[in-house]
């Protein structure tokens, strides 16, 4: 049987389906707000309390649709219920229904104008809806309250900054500083605003204030050094980095800043030396290092990347030595080694990563891609089965499991796991197409031709140019002598898409042969032979069959004998040679 597999093709797939989330459906327009009389009678109050507290109960047990329904009913009874409107708005925001959420929060603020939570949420909604002016206006209500808190001033300042109102924001930040004193977060907010306004001296002063207020903190010297470096004052930058080290020789952050300094000075050797020191520092958190390092890895092929392959490998080793139990390092290193074709080493790293933390689905994914690419089928089956146990809802892992079972002739099991995986595919047509393609191959092997062709049709609905499905489908139709016009169209398409592919040329020749167009088939099969990258018994046997039908009996026998030497031929070939005639039969 000639069949083209997707073992390597699936390596390009990287998306897994997302589990369905429950959605809250509802619109403000669907609610009747005609009852504006807050003086509820006893019956109304009883119903209102029932609906309101049921809404709270269902919110607590995470049933958003029921919670929405009950809060909506409560709001129908008392349209001035700000908390009802607030809860409904939050539920709608969870489903990104910002327009409807805005309407409800306007209602909440209308009837509870002094509620900080309501005012803050409405301001954020306005900002998300690109209504910056309204966002600022509603936020400023917070400091119009009788007793604004520090958080109120800070929120208003943030909204003002987001909308370019820097002077107003600075007024509020200075009020906060008068209330709470100098602190890092506040000073950096002001620092950033001064930089945006190109007020360089004032920005510098904010950092100097921090150094004066907290003389023992070496980080502030680093930040000031970074500021000078960005301003092009390398001498002052170096002075501040030196002061940072004088105060705290174990401050690893300074090495990253010094690395930037030496890079700017054009000293690549000292840049690398400082960088290695920084990554080896034990007082810098791992995630900070990882975020700093990965851009160098991602851009390793760019000419302006100062780190070469050996440098990247060295830093990975430093990170592993310093943070031995961080699975992300092993996984990222495994990806890197895979990309430079050190696959055996990469495999060991992925395994170490999963020994540390088997809950990392992305590492499982990359590991399975690697095993698939090196075609270690028994290992692929073992590890994909483990991945499915950890993540039964991720279809890609079932695809790997099904592929390995198919290769092991566990056909029933392969069909079962593929069907389960297909059920979980969401919003990923490419992945869904692979499932249908494989299921077509599996059901053909099981002899269920109806299901085989049904899945092939579905795969081609997703991608009409899927050459592997087109080839397999047309070949199986030709073997059965069915729907040969369709088989010819599909096979011709594969040759059009990949004119130098010997397998596709062979299939096209065989379809033409089945249609009795022997001279055309001879021309195509000769092109297939010319394009063979390695000997193929199937193709050479087909060549012999086609020669026979073109009247060249001796040539046919010669090709059939050659096919036997190569191997991978039909069971009828010896009989063909003995009788010196073509014998039709499924291969």
From TrEMBL:
Keywords: Repeat, TPR repeat. One of its GO terms (biological process) is RNA processing. TPR repeats lie at residues 218-251, 327-360, 433-466. InterPro entries: CellSynth/LPSAsmb/PSIAsmb, HAT, TPR-like_helical_dom_sf, TPR_2, TPR_rpt. This is Uncharacterized protein. It comes from Marinilabilia rubra.
């Amino acid at each position: 049987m000639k069949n083209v597999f997707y073992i390597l093709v699936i390596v390009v797939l990287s998306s897994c389906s997302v589990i369905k989330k429950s959605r809250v459906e509802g619109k403000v327009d669907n609610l009747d707000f005609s009852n504006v009389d807050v003086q509820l009678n006893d019956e109304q109050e009883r119903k209102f309390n029932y609906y309101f507290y049921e809404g709270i109960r269902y919110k607590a047990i995470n049933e958003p649709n029921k919670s929405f329904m009950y809060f909506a009913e409560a709001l129908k009874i008392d349209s001035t219920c700000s908390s009802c409107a607030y809860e409904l708005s939050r539920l709608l925001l969870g489903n990104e229904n910002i327009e409807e959420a805005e309407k409800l929060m306007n209602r909440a603020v209308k009837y509870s104008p002094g509620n900080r939570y309501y005012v803050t949420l409405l301001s954020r909604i306005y900002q998300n809806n690109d209504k910056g002016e309204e966002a600022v206006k509603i936020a400023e209500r917070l400091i119009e309250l009788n007793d604004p808190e520090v958080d109120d001033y800070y929120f208003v300042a943030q909204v003002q900054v987001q909308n370019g109102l820097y002077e107003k924001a600075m007024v509020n930040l200075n009020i906060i500083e008068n209330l709470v004193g100098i602190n890092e977060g506040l000073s950096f907010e002001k620092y950033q605003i001064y930089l945006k306004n190109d007020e360089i001296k004032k920005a510098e002063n904010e950092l100097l204030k921090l150094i004066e207020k907290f003389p023992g903190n070496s980080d502030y010297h680093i930040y000031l050094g970074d500021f000078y470096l960005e301003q092009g004052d390398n001498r002052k930058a170096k002075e501040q980095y030196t002061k940072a080290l004088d105060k705290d020789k174990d401050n690893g952050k300074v090495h990253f800043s010094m690395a930037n300094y030496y890079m700017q000075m054009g000293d690549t050797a000292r840049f690398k030396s400082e960088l290695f020191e920084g990554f080896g520092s034990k007082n810098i958190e791992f995630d900070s290092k990882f975020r700093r390092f990965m851009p160098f890895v991602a851009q390793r092929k760019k000419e302006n990347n100062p780190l070469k392959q050996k440098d990247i490998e060295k830093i990975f080793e430093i990170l592993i030595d310093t943070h031995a139990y961080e699975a992300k390092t092993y996984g990222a290193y495994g990806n890197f080694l895979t990309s430079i074709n050190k696959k055996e080493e990469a495999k060991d790293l992925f395994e170490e990563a999963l020994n540390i933390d088997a809950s990392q689905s992305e590492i499982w994914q990359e590991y399975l891609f690697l095993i698939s690419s090196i075609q270690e089928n028994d290992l692929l089956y073992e590890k994909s089965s483990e991945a499915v146990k950890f993540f039964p809802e991720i279809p890609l892992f079932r695809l790997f499991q099904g592929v390995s079972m198919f290769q092991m002739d566990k056909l029933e099991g392969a069909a079962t796991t593929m069907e389960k995986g297909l059920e979980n595919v969401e919003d990923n047509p490419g992945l869904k197409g692979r499932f249908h393609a494989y299921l077509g191959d599996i059901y053909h092997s099981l002899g269920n031709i109806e299901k085989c062709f049904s899945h092939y049709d579905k795969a081609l609905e997703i991608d009409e140019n899927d050459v592997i499905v087109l080839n397999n489908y047309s070949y199986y139709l030709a073997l059965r002598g069915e729907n040969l016009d369709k088989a010819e169209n599909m096979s011709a398409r594969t040759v059009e898409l990949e004119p130098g592919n010997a397998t596709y040329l062979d299939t096209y020749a065989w379809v033409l042969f089945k249609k009795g167009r022997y001279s055309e088939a001879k021309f195509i099969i000769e092109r297939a032979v010319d394009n063979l990258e390695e000997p193929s018994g199937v193709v050479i046997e087909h060549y012999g069959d086609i020669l026979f039908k073109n009247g060249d009996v001796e040539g046919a026998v010669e090709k059939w004998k050659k096919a036997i030497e190569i191997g991978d031929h039909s069971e009828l070939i010896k009989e063909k040679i003995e009788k010196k005639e073509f014998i039709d039969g499924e291969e």
